[in-house]
């Protein structure tokens, strides 16, 4: 199970110490900018499940994509893998009003 949350709740949550921020867009999409501190794991990449499987299931995850659809799918997949603390940026980075940086 996961929560769809708005920009304010997403910004508050991702600032917490136990938060992990994941951008599930493709590499090309991230060229327009990412939310600072995000880990890039393309949900359409063949290794998404492998990369996520090794992550700490007790942390709180904040996941986003362009519009909220793929990140919702990522949250669903992670919930099926036993992750319990999942938050989806409801409208994706398209409607994000927080800081954005270019990927490194």
Salient structural properties:
single chain, 5-stranded parallel β-sheet, alpha/beta, 104 residues, 5 strands
SSE inventory with pairings:
Blueprint: E1 3-5, H1 7-14, E2 19-23, E3 39-40, H2 48-53, E4 60-64, H3 69-80, E5 86-89
Parallel strand pairs: 1-5, 2-3, 2-4, 4-5
Describe the structure in your own words:
With 104 residues, the protein is of the alpha/beta class. 25% of the residues lie in helices and 18% in strands. It is built from 3 helices and 5 strands. The chain has a 5-stranded parallel β-sheet with strand order 1-5-4-2-3. The termini are far apart.
Brief summary of the model shown:
The protein has 104 residues and is α/β, with parallel strands linked by helices. The protein is built from 3 helices and 5 strands.
Q: How much helical structure, as a percent, in the residues?
A: 25-40%
Low-confidence stretches: none
Task: Please trace the helix and strand order, writing H or E for each element.
Answer: EHEEHEHE
The protein's oligomeric status is single chain
The structure class reads alpha/beta
What radius of gyration results from the CA coordinates? 12 Å
What is the total tally of β strands?
5
Distance between the termini: 32 Å
Which band does the percent of strand residues land in? Answer: 15-25%
Strand order of the largest sheet: 1-5-4-2-3
Q: Give the biggest sheet.
A: 5 strands, parallel
| Chain-averaged pLDDT | 96
Shape: globular
- The number of helices is 3
